[in-house]
Amino acid sequence: MSSGSGILTSFARQRTKDEGRYHGRPSSFVLHLVFVLLALGLAACGREAPPRAAATAAPAAAQQPTFAPAPPPSTQVAPEQRALGDPNAPITVIEYGDFQCPFCHSFVSETKPQLEAQYINTGKVYFIYRDFPLVDIHPGALLAAHVANCAADQGGFWPMHDRLFEGAAMHEWSSGSGEDFKTFLGYAQDLQLDVGKLQQCINSNQQAARIAADYRAGAERGVRSTPTFLVNGQPFVGARPYADWQRYLDSLLAR
Questions:
Q1: Which of 85, 140, 149, 207 has a beta carbon 3.0–4.6 Å from 126's, enabling a disulfide?
Q2: pLDDT tens, position by position, 166-221
Q3: Can you tell me the distance from the alpha carbon of 237 to that of 95, in angstroms, rounded to the nearest whole number?
Q4: How many separate domains does the chain show?
Q5: Angstrom distance (rounded) from CA 109 to CA 241
Q6: 160 and 147 in contact (C-beta within 8 Å)?
Q7: Beta-carbon neighbour count of residue 178 at 10 Å?
Q8: Would residue 67 count as lying in a domain?
């Protein structure tokens, strides 16, 4: 059985018999999003991921899925909740990441702190995170993305972002199961978030449209693996060492 089939089978076993609400289990809406993401045919993580040949690329129609209407503006995550630094900085970096990707964790733990100190906090770089869950190989990534985006509603995106990556590296979660959901609620409690509010956000699939929009935008921009960064619109792929970032960013700032 392929990894994608295993994901779908696991999700199907956990569906409730009511209206598909998420009480530690993915709802029908999340299932639909999983099917959409699998249809895009991306199964890659980090710098070792080869680009897919054009002959095997998913049809354009597969990258334009139909979703339920987006929630009212008052329930949307404000864009700045998933960003760091000055929006007017000369360089904008957009990361397309996956919370279960080990290369993404390497970037977060080894490189991002230095980027924050030297470029983001000094007004040189505006850093934005966008979701690109590779569900075919990372079955827990989609649920983790929901948790992070719901935490953003409470101003807790970045603490939850860091905790999710730490937990994945320590094998505290992996499958997107009900047990993982309990683990995530524990993270929310540790971070002093409103656990009930976060659970309701996930139950109602409040962030599903946003996650799908992130993924679709990334695919349309040529993202095929994580982490992929767009630096002033240009791709910079993989968990590269800080020295690579320093050379690249300094060259842009010198122009």
A1: 85
A2: 999 999 999 999 999 999 999 999 999 999 999 999 989 999 999 999 999 999 99
A3: 10
A4: 1
A5: 11
A6: yes
A7: 15
A8: no
